[in-house]
């Protein structure tokens, strides 16, 4: 069974440019997302891309599955320009990418990166020919390429090869370990072919996606040891709601803590009618709670207990969090650095003053049987006590004044 050399830890990952965004090479972990619109509807797709980008997606992937979608790509770019949105677009190609990129050169030129799945780029002798066609387009237009294997669409030729080799072993490996080796071989062999065709190593990213947490952790740990290409992380088909969020967080947090991963996507199934931006917010919150990046001032809030029968602090915590996220696009330009700010919204006297003093700005609301007043702490010092019907508005103003004073442009 083919083995790949282990790369010494001190060797830094390659740095890949995806449009104006740097991935790998020690750059901050990049947040990406994907549209679910019909790409052929250029305006509708551009509107969703803009929504995702405004929520914090730094690159956005779109499906390019037929000629209508390919011809819409430059129109989408034009719409984004009119909207003042500058974000790299990734073309997601399966089965017919070689045909579409050759047939619609303006699509090939408009995209910042091509995503290829080596498991479905072609069968038999056509596989390398089709793959080479796509790589040649990437070279021609100076584009990055993500070679992304997925356990659900695994390269059958490589799988057969590894299964045959495994059957000859005295102690055959378990099926899941064979799958890891097949996925790794699929992307590394494809990357080697891409470089042989002429694509520079600093134009290549890899991914090996699986849908189970432990499998994803295991396969990425193995791949990380065997290459210097930047790695895209994501638990494929993560699921809906809390299940998808928890599973993605459990898998990615382990890998990110180990220094594995250069760009991430949270593949949530949206609830009916739910905004696609939730996957962006979850990705940001994973990175921020781990201290890897800062996107918006972080709100510490207590869960509530028998001391806090009023839900006022819950509403205030939600309102202040929404307020901060909505203001961040403006503050990023006018008040750089404010995303590192800490805000505390606490519900009673037990932990309220302590948590509030530890934050940049904190409020300790009254619990049951406490005086109906709310002391506010700024950088550890009590500055004012709020009461009455305008506590929420007054506290938000204190937060905004703090940002204006301490994070001036």
Structural overview:
By secondary structure, this protein is α/β, with parallel strands linked by helices. The protein folds into two domains: 16-290, Alpha-Beta Barrel (TIM Barrel), CATH 3.20.20; 298-407, Sulfite Reductase Hemoprotein, domain 1 (2-Layer Sandwich), CATH 3.30.413.10. 45% of the residues lie in helices and 18% in strands. It is built from 13 helices and 17 strands. It has helices spanning 42-55, 67-83, 97-103, 105-110, 125-141, 156-167, 175-197, 213-224, 241-257, 278-289, 312-334, 352-358, 391-406; strands spanning 15-18, 21-24, 30-34, 59-63, 89-93, 113-116, 144-150, 204-209, 232-233, 239-240, 263-264, 268-269, 298-301, 342-346, 361-364, 374-378, 381-386. Strands 8-7-6-5-4-3-11-9 form an eight-stranded parallel sheet. The model has no long low-confidence stretch (mean pLDDT 94).
Topology:
Elements: E1 15-18, E2 21-24, E3 30-34, H1 42-55, E4 59-63, H2 67-83, E5 89-93, H3 97-103, H4 105-110, E6 113-116, H5 125-141, E7 144-150, H6 156-167, H7 175-197, E8 204-209, H8 213-224, E9 232-233, E10 239-240, H9 241-257, E11 263-264, E12 268-269, H10 278-289, E13 298-301, H11 312-334, E14 342-346, H12 352-358, E15 361-364, E16 374-378, E17 381-386, H13 391-406
Parallel strand pairs: 3-4, 3-11, 4-5, 5-6, 6-7, 7-8, 9-11, 10-12, 13-14, 14-15
Antiparallel strand pairs: 1-2, 15-16, 16-17
Helix pairs in contact: 1-2, 3-5, 5-7, 6-7, 7-8, 8-9, 9-10
